[in-house]
Design brief:
- By secondary structure, the protein is α/β, with parallel strands linked by helices.
- The chain folds into two domains: 6-87, Ribosomal Protein S8, Chain: A, domain 1 (2-Layer Sandwich); 97-310, Rossmann fold (3-Layer(aba) Sandwich).
- Helices cover 43% and strands 14% of the residues.
- The longest helix is centred in the N-terminal third of the chain and has 19 residues, at 50-68.
- The protein is globular, with a radius of gyration of 22 Å.
- The N and C termini lie far apart (53 Å).
Length: 315
C-alpha cells in the first residue's frame, strides 16, 4: 500500500453514492482494485499502488458524475463503472463493430446491459426512444463478433400483415424486410453495411417474423424479440420455448403500444407477470427519463403517461 493516500474532492451526494448503503459500493471498489477507500467528509480518500488508484479513481469519478446528475446509483451501476475502468473504456460501453463503443446514457441502460451480460433471458420494457432494441442489438453483435454465439437472430411480430405476408410482392426476404427496417438500421449502424451483408449471407445474422421461428430449436444463438407487446400469449410462449443449448434471449417492448385487435391478448405483460421470480431471468423497466431521442420525445411520453394515469389505466 502507498503511504500517501490520494484524496478526491466530491459533493456530499457523490460521497454517499460511492460509499453505498452499509459501505457496500466502497467494498466492491476496494475488492476490484485492491485499494482502501475512506470517506472522511468532503470526498474520498484512496490508498493503494499507483495503477490501482488510477483505475479506482476512474470508477469513483464516473459514479460521482452520475450522482451529481441526480441519478440513483445501484450496485449494477458500480459494477459497470468498475468493469469499464478496468478495460479502459467508457463506463458501460460495448466494444462492437464500426461504432467502436456503444455506451449507456442512463442508469437504467447501464442496469440493462448488466442484465444482458448476466441473465439468459431479459425483458426490456418501456417507451420508444429508450435504447431497448439498439442496446440489445449492440450486445448481440458484440457476442457474435467475439465468437461467443454462432448466430444473431432478431424477430418481431408482423402485426400489420397479420403475419400473412403472401400478399406482398417479391421473395421471402423482400416480403419481410419492410417490417424489419428498424432492426436492419440498427445492425447497419453498428456493424456497417458490408459486414452485415457478409454475415447475413453466411447465415450468422437472421431477421424474421415470429411466425418463422415456430418448430425450431435455437442453439448457440443470441435471440432478440422486438416489439413483443404485439405478440399474442401463444406466440410468446412459443418463442420463449425456442431457447436451445448455449442460447440467450432478450424480449423488448412497450406494453402501452399494443397494436393487436384484442390488447388483452398481448403476451408481453402476461409473460413478465408469470416469470418475474424465475431464476436466470432479468426484467428491466425503462421510464420517460430514459428517452435518449429528441428531448421532445420525453415530454411526449410523459404527457401520454399522465393521460393514462388520469384515466385510471396502468400497464
Amino acid at each position: 500500500m502507498s503511504r500517501a493516500p490520494e484524496f478526491i474532492h466530491l459533493s456530499d451526494a457523490a460521497v454517499r453514492a460511492v460509499a453505498g448503503a452499509h459501505s457496500r459500493h466502497a467494498a466492491l471498489i476496494e475488492d476490484a482494485f485492491g485499494v482502501l477507500l475512506e470517506t472522511p467528509g468532503g470526498g474520498v480518500s484512496m490508498q493503494g499502488d499507483t495503477k490501482a488508484r488510477a483505475q479506482a479513481k476512474k470508477a469513483v469519478q464516473h459514479i460521482a458524475e452520475r450522482a451529481d446528475q441526480g441519478l440513483e446509483i445501484a450496485e449494477a451501476d458500480v459494477r459497470v463503472a468498475i468493469g469499464q475502468a478496468k478495460s479502459g473504456g467508457a463506463p458501460g460501453a460495448l466494444p462492437v463493430g464500426r461504432r467502436g463503443q456503444v455506451a449507456p446514457k442512463t442508469a437504467t441502460q447501464a442496469r440493462y446491459l448488466e442484465a444482458l451480460s448476466k441473465c439468459e433471458l431479459v425483458f426490456g420494457l418501456g417507451p420508444a426512444g429508450t435504447g431497448k432494441t439498439f442496446l440489445a442489438v449492440a450486445h448481440g453483435a458484440g457476442l457474435l463478433l467475439r465468437g461467443e454465439v454462432d448466430r444473431l437472430i432478431v424477430s418481431r411480430p408482423a402485426v400489420e400483415a397479420g403475419e400473412r405476408l403472401g400478399f406482398l410482392p417479391g421473395d421471402l426476404t423482400e416480403k419481410v424486410d419492410p417490417y424489419m427496417a428498424p432492426v436492419w438500421e440498427a445492425l447497419t449502424d453498428i456493424l456497417g453495411a458490408e459486414q452485415l451483408r457478409r454475415r447475413r449471407e453466411k447465415g450468422e445474422i437472421e431477421v424474421a417474423p415470429i411466425a418463422f421461428l415456430r418448430g425450431r430449436t435455437l442453439s448457440h444463438a443470441f435471440i432478440i424479440v422486438d416489439e413483443a407487446q404485439n405478440a399474442t400469449r401463444l406466440q410468446m410462449k412459443m418463442v420463449l420455448t425456442r431457447l436451445g443449448e448455449g442460447a440467450r434471449m432478450v424480449v423488448t417492448g412497450d406494453p402501452t403500444q399494443i397494436d393487436l385487435s384484442s390488447p388483452a391478448d398481448s403476451g408481453l405483460a402476461h409473460a413478465v407477470g408469470l416469470l418475474d421470480d424465475v431464476k436466470g431471468i432479468g426484467i428491466i423497466r425503462f421510464g420517460a427519463e430514459d428517452v435518449v431521442r429528441h428531448p421532445l420525445v420525453e415530454r411526449i411520453v410523459r404527457a401520454y403517461d399522465a393521460d393514462a394515469a388520469k384515466r385510471g389505466r396502468s400497464f
